[in-house]
Amino acid sequence: MYIYEKVRNYIDENGIKQVAVAKKAGISNVTFNAIMNGKRTMYAEDLKAICIALNVSPETFVDYKKEERSTL
Asked: Does residue 51 sit in helix, strand or coil?
């Protein structure tokens, strides 16, 4: 699952209006909508602003588990 999908699910599950998150995060409604629909890349700055607006840690949406990686 992509990070934007996790953010969108969190917002929906908690009954939060996307417009309110966008405003509090300082992101235009059009840009925020594009991010939430996977039509625009969510940059680190966007995630930070969204997490601050939602008062949650980025770990809420980012899985830091170390995955197996092939060696070169």
From this structure: helix
Q: What is the dihedral of CA 50, 7, 30, 18, to 10 degrees?
A: -80
Q: In whole angstroms, how far apart are CA 27 and each of 7, 22, 56, 58? A: 15, 5, 17, 17
Tell me the pLDDT tens digit for each residue of 36-60: 999 999 999 999 999 999 999 999 9
Q: Token pair of 67, please?
A: 């995955």
- Please tell me the pTM assigned to this model: 0.85
Is the C-alpha dihedral spanning 6, 43, 46, 51 positive or negative? positive
Q: CA nearest 48: which of 38, 67, 35, 65?
A: 35
**d(C-alpha 7, C-alpha 12), whole Å:** 9
